[in-house]
């Protein structure tokens, strides 16, 4: 009989770093491969200025991808977030032009976002309409209102202060990056350190247990959608600062990139599985992909297809890892 002891022992011996490598999400692998690829073909890709540019350009996406993570963890979806963000940007710009007050404009933008978040939450939680259908409807409403308010034109004349929020620096770091770090810290605390976060996990993983515990499921589900709407209002501040204007269609389709970043980061659409650091990796992967494709002169229409391909590649990596 052949000696199988040595063969069995050899199979049991782990490869160097295998436990660590096995735990790395697919987004980390894709981010590493994209960075290496664009560093090889894109001139100046790894320069400090370009890396800061990637981070700055990714902040708006991060601000809506973080709440999108929580929404997806509840087995939900918010297709209206891009259109609501555009509407919030229009309202913010109009209030600034009318009053000159940035704080009042930001409050108005967040208020609009909260209103749409409340509407989405009521449609999903109270009326039981599937999130895909309900948020698709509110997407059309938000986009239509933004176009009616502006007649399809940009709202200009926001002044010189608000653009500094996007182009300014603090201790050599762009201001949007500071906002992104602070926002992530807030969401990390909410999800992993508070009762709200525990309920978010339970809403997707064990909703019946919440009901048996006497927790108002509908109330907390509405709160999750309202948080997404509020973050759309905050993101509108950076969007308006970046464009130096409010445009009714500026962020249409950004919800697709947010959902892609969340999916790439490892959050699943069932059982309340979500990981905020993975969402950050997903956002960076999308940002690196867009930046690298811009450097090599790829059309924007092709970039959308590339983001979809990115999602498929990461899902394949995770599938292979699961089989292994």
TrEMBL record:
<keyword id="KW-1133">Transmembrane helix</keyword>
<feature type="transmembrane region" description="Helical">
    <location>
        <begin position="52"/>
        <end position="72"/>
    </location>
</feature>
<keyword id="KW-1003">Cell membrane</keyword>
<feature type="transmembrane region" description="Helical">
    <location>
        <begin position="104"/>
        <end position="125"/>
    </location>
</feature>
<feature type="transmembrane region" description="Helical">
    <location>
        <begin position="79"/>
        <end position="98"/>
    </location>
</feature>
<keyword id="KW-0997">Cell inner membrane</keyword>
<feature type="transmembrane region" description="Helical">
    <location>
        <begin position="220"/>
        <end position="241"/>
    </location>
</feature>
<feature type="transmembrane region" description="Helical">
    <location>
        <begin position="170"/>
        <end position="191"/>
    </location>
</feature>
<feature type="transmembrane region" description="Helical">
    <location>
        <begin position="27"/>
        <end position="46"/>
    </location>
</feature>
<keyword id="KW-0813">Transport</keyword>
<keyword id="KW-0812">Transmembrane</keyword>
<dbReference type="Pfam" id="PF02653">
    <property type="entry name" value="BPD_transp_2"/>
</dbReference>
<protein>
    <submittedName>
        <fullName>D-allose transport system permease protein AlsC</fullName>
    </submittedName>
</protein>
<dbReference type="InterPro" id="IPR001851">
    <property type="entry name" value="ABC_transp_permease"/>
</dbReference>
<feature type="transmembrane region" description="Helical">
    <location>
        <begin position="296"/>
        <end position="317"/>
    </location>
</feature>
<keyword id="KW-0472">Membrane</keyword>
